[in-house]
Amino acid sequence: MNVSLPQSQQPYKVMAIYKFADLPDAEAIQPVLAAFCCSRGIKGTLILAPEGINGTVAGTTEAIDALADWLFAGPVFARRLEGAEVKYSKASAMPFLRMKVRLKPEIVTLRAPEANPARQVGTYVEPEDWNSLIERNDVVLVDTRNDYEVGLGTFQRALDPATKSFTEFKDYVAEHLDPKRDKKVAMFCTGGIRCEKASSYLLSQGFEEVFHLKGGILRYLEMVPESESRFSGECFVFDERVSVGHGLVEGEATLCRACRHPLTILDRAHADYIEGVSCPHCADEAGKHAAAAERQRQMELGRKHGVAHLGDAAATVAAERKAAKRALAEASRARNKA
């Protein structure tokens, strides 16, 4: 594999998808969907619930294209996924270890039955119109993601709810937002799905005008030139790429293998960072370190003897990409300036 290839020639195609749709037969669909993906070498996670589908998978271009045709035009979903929010990107190596199709009560967990995107949802804002909206003084801009995601990057002037999970967003709204004061609220998230529920929830609580970024940060980074961007940093993604930047080029972030917190370059330069064992975010959690240290020892032994370790896959991929990431980022910046 040549990891120095430009992004358009990377060998793996990544598909992120979500759609709020009526899927009362989600349980019956689960094994059929899993079999389709596994038979084509597709890996990743898809969540099925009575309210729809959500997830990210990767495979060869041919495999992902076949999956898209099957999802949108095949008999199993019977066109119920038409209009789904779908984003494609490329990866230099397979970003997932296995294929999982999970059944859950919700495709994004908020535990607020009054939030029903199929019934009411905020106003979608296209990426090219987002900057002019969020620069208005009468608009309150809220990042609906969790604290570890916000820590890698966010939009300028955005409020950080400092949540550990999306279910806490309801508490943030109750404590910090007021429908009588905050007449216009704009929200964003990684791919748009959390904002659909969040906007529906705010409307149910009496907020008058609620906007959300269509396609989320990922679509914005794909469509808006870096020279015009109001997004600072990198966007956390839920796979072994860890983060992406403008043009959806793989970012510089890595994961702490003890606590799974994303790490910036500064985090990895911190005195509390020990590769595979601890980081500044979990330095005081001694219980995690022993297991992490043993896993790291097994990985290093495996490397020494030329034997692959299951937990080594992500670390190996990260190491192989390291040099390529910077070159790809530079190429992306050059293209945006051209």
From TrEMBL:
Enzyme Commission code: 1.14.-.-
Alphabetical keyword list: Oxidoreductase, tRNA processing
Domain Rhodanese: residue ranges: 135-229
InterPro entries: Rhodanese-like_dom (IPR001763), Rhodanese-like_dom_sf (IPR036873), TrhO (IPR020936), TRHO_N (IPR040503)
Catalytic activity: uridine(34) in tRNA + AH2 + O2 = 5-hydroxyuridine(34) in tRNA + A + H2O
SMART domains: RHOD (SM00450)
Keyword tRNA processing: yes
Superkingdom to which the source organism belongs: Bacteria
UniProt xrefs under PANTHER family: RHODANESE-LIKE DOMAIN-CONTAINING PROTEIN 7-RELATED, THIOSULFATE SULFURTRANSFERASE/RHODANESE-LIKE DOMAIN-CONTAINING PROTEIN 2
Function noted in UniProt: Catalyzes oxygen-dependent 5-hydroxyuridine (ho5U) modification at position 34 in tRNAs.
Record family assignment: Belongs to the TrhO family.
Name this polypeptide is given: tRNA uridine(34) hydroxylase
Native source species: Devosia oryziradicis
